[in-house]
Design brief:
Catalyzes the reversible epimerization of D-ribulose 5-phosphate to D-xylulose 5-phosphate. Belongs to the ribulose-phosphate 3-epimerase family. Pfam families: Ribul_P_3_epim. 33% of the residues lie in helices and 19% in strands. It is of the alpha/beta class. The protein has a single domain, classed as Alpha-Beta Barrel (TIM Barrel). Helix 6 runs parallel beside helix 8. The protein binds 5-O-phosphono-D-xylulose (5SP) and cobalt (II) ion. 5-O-phosphono-D-xylulose binds next to strand 2, strand 8 and helix 7.
């Protein structure tokens, strides 16, 4: 039985104090870095230099969530830099299977993300080449949004698609103590949490609480 993994998203952390902000979440299972290009999503965050700074500062595995156009071109650099998982959006990747193989060749695990409107069935033919399936539980682009309840049924379908062997099922967006149990019950096992961790007075306590709530139902 695998234990639930909590990956704090640094999107809304105090980037001027990146090292301190990473230290606040040192008990997490990974760090989630949201890369946004203001084309695939209506927001601009950061790219390789910040990801490299995160990699140089934390010993936790880094999970890069690329909300960008043309990931076939840009994602390999994130694998080369040492990210543990590089996740690309199914809606943006031109040749997802080829890209997954390239990420593997460069030493990273490959993740495939779905916008809320993209069905699980749309990736049924390609998901087997990936290590992680990410079901977005908010519209990608911003932290601090409300969890989309209709995504619970989609998480259940995603769990049926990936089965119990190999491919990890991640959820991202609006994960809080109020929503994580239902996401875990539906089948998620890797939980991205931005505001719920970084807005907490004690981020390590927030991580423990989320992990223990998810652990009641998962995995
Ligand atoms: O990818 C995204 C948003 O597009 C996320 O990773 C958010 O940054 C998570 O933040 P919260 O919803 O947990 O505040
Ligand atoms: Co994200």
């Amino acid at each position: 039985m695998r234990s639930p993994a909590i990956h704090p998203s640094i999107l809304n952390c105090d980037i001027a104090h990146l090292a301190d902000e990473l230290a606040r979440v040192s008990s997490a299972d990974g760090v989630h870095v949201d890369v946004m290009d203001n084309h695939f999503v209506p927001n601009l965050s950061w790219g390789m230099p910040v990801v490299e700074a995160v990699l140089a500062t934390t010993s936790l595995p880094v999970d890069a969530h690329l909300m960008i156009e043309d990931p076939d071109r840009w994602a390999p650099a994130y694998a080369e830099s040492g990210c543990d998982v590089v996740t690309v959006h199914a809606e943006a990747a031109a040749a997802p299977v080829r890209l997954a193989h390239e990420l593997h060749r460069l030493g990273a695990r490959a993740g495939l993300a779905l916008r809320p409107a993209t069905s699980v069935e749309a990736v049924a033919d390609v998901v087997q080449d990936f290590d992680l399936l990410l079901v977005m539980t908010v519209e990608p682009g911003f932290g601090g949004q409300r969890f989309l309840e209709p995504m619970l049924a989609k998480i259940e379908r995603a769990r049926r698609l990936v089965g119990s062997a190999g491919i990890r099922l991640q959820v991202d967006g609006g994960i809080t103590p109020q929503t994580i149990e239902r996401a875990a019950e539906a089948g998620a096992e890797v939980f991205v949490a931005g505001s719920a961790v970084y807005r907490a007075q004690d981020a390590q306590a927030a991580i423990s609480e989320l992990r223990s709530l998810a652990g009641r139902h998962c995995c």
